[in-house]
Amino acid sequence: MKHLYTLLFTLSIILINPWGTSRGEIWTTPKVLIVLLIASLNLSILWQNRKAIQIPKSWKINRLLWEIFLGIGLISTLNSPFPFLSLWGQDQMGDGFLYWLLIAIFTLSNSLILKLRPELIRSQVKGILMGGVILAVSIFPQIINWRIDYTATMGQLIQDNVLVSSIFQGHQPIGLYSHRGHAAFVLVVASVLILVCRNWGWLSVKVTAVMIIPVILALLLTQTRAGIIAVMIAIAYFLYQSSTAKRYRQIAICTVLVSLLLISTVSASRHIQALYQLNFDRKTLLLKNLTSDRAWLWELGLQGISKRPFLGWGFDGFGIAYPYVLNPHHIPKVIYIDNFSYDYLSQDGELAIEPLPTYKAHNLILDTTVSIGILGLLTYLALLGSYLFHLIKSPSQGIEAVVIAYLVFTFTWFDCAQFTHLSWSILSLADINSQKEKQQL
């Protein structure tokens, strides 16, 4: 059973479908199916041991919060202009209502499994670490040749800078994900967990070095500033609360300095080519390049929230709201929303197509609110707060640094079905609330 959990958690990070025809089929669906298998395995074990299960009060509170969150999400989905899209989520993002229902089942069942059999946490963490190292190794060949995407059409182009799999040259290295930002978050989780496991005595110094060097190097090579900042803050938090902080202080300082240098270099050299086709002044152009034009996305997100403040537009709501807020002087009749475009009736009654640059506002607060409204946001924050509070109080000291990394990372990023389960797998440790249970790990 231990080896099965290790395998499943590893596959939840590295599994892809090379023969898929879209980003969702290649990178999202395989990972979601593994999460579904884990949740199913959890439920099977819990059913077999139902008489031995002791349900803590914190679990009941979290279940209630999940029920409220999903209830609001269901109402938002039914009220959405595109309920089917809200139900399933956009192809690549995959985080529609059904995905969050799966995450709720996965998290709640995993909490009870780990309380029933605390020794399985080591197997699950081992799987995440193995997946993180494999992901790191998969990134290095892509630095040499950007056409490597590990799909059946690897190396084939539809444009000079776009692969048949729809991956742009500027998105590489992606590892085993559809975007380097997604890969970066998984590497952040692996980096922090390696230090936590070392602090718990699960890894020797030699094994720690062998694992963390390629993972950190791969993270730096993704040039994802959100990931680099997230790992810096998470490690700083971990060292601050850890009794072994002094031992690693010099290493941490060196890592921070190298990371700051890389962030500065990436920020100074980043250029979004599409911006140069528009008539922006030099100062505005510099700001948009430095922020990857997040300010514009956040502004649109706020406009979307203002139109549907309480229940939102449905899951992946930024993409649904985008056509309605792009031009405040004309609200189009949107016929269909695709992965990268939407169809609508123009003012003269003819069918027209416009590009849809992203389904996300690139901020957790904004994306949650534009999707399921203020009511959904408050419930989601209550969920995170409840789990984090109990996790900090639990004997699993230091592992909450992964959640800190998640919160920092999603300040300029978003939830996605390719990796969000990793955060909730860590949060599911919150119900291990006795030292006796911790000693069984």
Mean pLDDT: 89
Distance separating the two termini: 15 Å
Query: What is the C-alpha radius of gyration, as a whole number of Å?
Result: 22 Å
User: How many individual β-strands?
Assistant: 5
Describe the global form: globular
Major sheet: arrangement of strands? 3-4-5
Assess the beta-strand content as a share of residues.
under 5%
Low-confidence stretches: 274-278, 435-441
H/E series: HHHHHHEEHHHHHHHEEEHHHH
Q: Give the biggest sheet.
A: 3 strands, antiparallel
Helix content: 55-70%
- Which structural class is indicated by helix and strand composition? mainly alpha
Quick gist of this model?
By secondary structure, this protein is mainly alpha-helical.
